[in-house]
Amino acid sequence: MAVLPVLLLFLLSFHHQLQVLAQATQSYQDFRYMKFVHNATNLPQEEEYDYIVIGGGTAGCPLAATLSEKYSVLVLERGGAPISTPNVLSASGIFANLMEADDGKTTPAQRFTSEDGVKNVRGRVLGGSSMINAGFYSRAQEEFFSESGVEWEREEVEKAYEWVEESIVSRSNLTLWNSAFKEALLEAGVGPDNGFSLDHVLGTKESGSTFDNLGRRHGAVELLNKGEAKNLKVAVYAPVQRILFSSKASISNPSAIGVIYTDSKGKSHRALIRNKGEVILSAGALGSPQLLLLSGIGPSSYLSSLKIPLIKHQKNVGQFMADNPRNNIFLVTPFQFDPSLAQVVGITTDYFIESTVGDLPFSSTSEPFSLFPSLSSSSINLSLASILVKPPGPLSHGDLRLASSSNVKTSPRVRFNYFQDPVDLARCVRGMRKTGEMLETKSMNRFKYTDLQGQMGFLLLGSSLPSNYKTDDSSMEEFCRSTVTTFWHYHGGCLVGKVVDGDFRVMGINKLRVVDGSTFTVSPGTNPQATHMMLGRYVGLKMIQERKESK
């Protein structure tokens, strides 16, 4: 009989998810937030606020909107508003964003290459990487919460997820390719079929998306619409140069008092916090540790070598940087598809498998940056389906170092050490073997070509699995190493328990927090954006409650 209450709770939760998604699907792109977006050149040289949020990204937007319900908030975003780069507003613009040359200033996908030699991008636009990603929305696994070092209030976590989902998450109809992909996962034994769910459950499921059925993106930026307009100001093209600290505080007890940022004309501005206010870093897994280091918080010997004045010795800033490796099989399909982003995922304890499909025009000089491991081809136009494998975690990690000790616009140097831990490599091998099994299912037969001899097979772009992939571990390990790319889910650098405490306060520093993926030990769920947005809402409510209790 004890099963019935649990079943009832699951059904009620699922019913609520469908209700929430129905509301979101019916909405149009909502640009009301533009009424409190300002070009930094138009802001005063000095202002005061209760809270300053550095980074208007996937976590920063919901955080700022929440805090503005009670207090004045300034968001400082280094990129521009989405309407300035319309490719970020639609599913059809995803590849265009990756193909657009980085101008170093305003393009929404800022390019960088890790010291592992893997190409990558980071969001440089209001809404952050939620405006350049593939939109897949799925909540974190249970282990993320139990092993995070944070004492989560799980009812509040659920409410924070729902707050996000009611506004920007949709359930889309499965496309032909994603229906076949789902069938192949189930045929290959990635079961059970969990239908539609936003939760992280073992097996195969359909999940939500921040794209609606018309291909319009509803990124984290739209969560700003939930803020209190009179309390919220967002500055774009406003990169923060460094965090300011009180001259009265001792080096053993420094306090943040504000920031210095510049506008697009190079003019410097100061933003200060009022009594009981805070500075909050939400600049992402690269930006947040970079700004701590530039501001004098990090390993003392390292900062001294760069002639950066020391504010607080913190040996773990920039450490434990991790990026989930992505390995792929790219199928050239025998007929064209309408573009389709990830809608289905296969979840096991060892790997996650997702897929996308679309017509992809590119050449050796304009292929989508960071999408492929390495291609050299003449100009071609392909309908291309990709099957993507991602191991959870990962366990491998590296570090971040400054490429410039004075210019925040220069991306830091980062090494992720993909597959350094043998567990990650073994998970890749198992995931790619499962991909091979999927290609042998009946569901995939319709995507094969017939050659002149009447033999059927797949036409692949890039590397194919080794012929002995089922039995030869060494050849599969080499395949994983040689074809590794990024899933764009990098994290770390300001870990809970090492740089910030369980309330996301920077340890040893007053009035300074970090609220973004740089605090995560592992990537949450199959795709992290759901949990980044939940985090912003959750911490914002906790901060409001803390101030209420301190009165």
Largest sheet: 8 strands, mixed
- How many DSSP-defined strands? 27
Low-confidence stretches: 1-12, 22-26
N-end to C-end Cα span: 47 Å
Instruction: Tell me the helix content.
Output: 10-25%
Q: Number of helix segments? A: 11
What's the Cα radius of gyration? Answer: 23 Å
Tell me what portion of residues adopts beta-strand conformation.
15-25%
What class would the helix/strand composition place it in?
alpha/beta
Q: Mean of the pLDDT scores?
A: 92
From the spread of the alpha carbons, the general shape counts as globular
Summarize the structure in words:
It is a single chain. The relative contact order is 0.18. Strands 1, 2, 3, 10, 11, 12, 13 and 27 form an 8-stranded mixed beta sheet that branches. Strands 7, 8, 17, 18, 19, 20, 25 and 26 form an 8-stranded mixed beta sheet that branches. Helix 1 (3-25) runs parallel beside helix 5 and helix 2 (60-67) runs parallel beside helix 11 (529-550). The protein is 25% helix and 24% strand. The longest helix has 23 residues, at 3-25. With 551 residues, the chain is an alpha/beta fold.
Short description:
Residues 1-12 and 22-26 have low confidence and may be disordered. The chain is an alpha/beta fold and 551 residues long. Strands 1, 2, 3, 10, 11, 12, 13 and 27 form an 8-stranded mixed β-sheet that branches. Strands 7, 8, 17, 18, 19, 20, 25 and 26 form an 8-stranded mixed β-sheet that branches. The chain has a 3-stranded antiparallel β-sheet with strand order 16-21-22, covered by helices on one side.
What key attributes describe this structure?
disordered N terminus, globular, alpha/beta, 8-stranded mixed β-sheet, 27 strands, single chain, 551 residues
